[in-house]
Design brief:
Elements: H1 5-14, H2 16-21, H3 27-38, H4 45-53, H5 57-77, H6 81-99, H7 103-125, H8 133-153, H9 157-171
């Protein structure tokens, strides 16, 4: 499935589980319901993209129903949202094995060198006083490095659930 960033944002808002499934082996099941809602031809990604961007309020409600139905189907099959996310990562790893592309490895090394290089520089020279640019760059590289480590070594589902629980506690009055 190949839809644009804006259409994907619409989908993530109204059908987040369906959006997550798009990157993995259950994409066909996820897209079928959307094609039915919008009346698009199966496989016509551009038509579905345009339909998502121009969705009426009734279609947005229908997308939510597709989301609910898809979640029920996944529960019946014993598939969790975490498994969909893992399938997306597994798909990227499988692509790397088949294509033999060095780009992910090169990006991982350069990001790691950049991240730790800036940390080392800041330990020696301190944080710049007049500009936050270095701190923004450090934050971005830190986030990217975390994603790289999760890609190559796996991520901790327990840590994520713990973070979600802390977020819920923080939201309480």
């Amino acid at each position: 499935m190949n839809i644009g960033d804006k259409a994907l944002q619409v989908l993530k808002t109204f059908a987040p589980t369906v959006a997550t499934a798009l990157g993995g082996p259950l994409a066909g099941a996820a897209v079928a319901g959307l094609e039915k809602v919008f009346g698009t031809t199966p496989g016509d990604d551009k038509a579905l993209n345009d339909a998502l961007l121009a969705a009426s309020p009734e279609q947005m409600v229908a997308m939510r129903k597709v989301e609910d139905d898809f979640q029920v189907q996944m529960k019946q099959l014993g598939v969790t949202e975490e498994q969909l996310e893992y399938a997306d990562t597994a798909s990227a790893r499988a692509r790397e094995e088949v294509v033999k592309d060095n780009t992910p490895m090169i990006l991982a090394y350069t990001t790691t060198i950049g991240f730790f290089g800036i940390l080392f520089w800041m330990l020696i020279y301190g944080a710049p006083k007049d500009s936050d640019v270095l701190l923004v760059m450090l934050g971005a590289l830190g986030s990217a490095w975390t994603a790289i480590v999760a890609y190559y070594f796996g991520s901790s589902l327990g840590a994520r659930k713990g973070l979600d629980a802390l977020t819920q506690i923080a939201k309480q009055p």
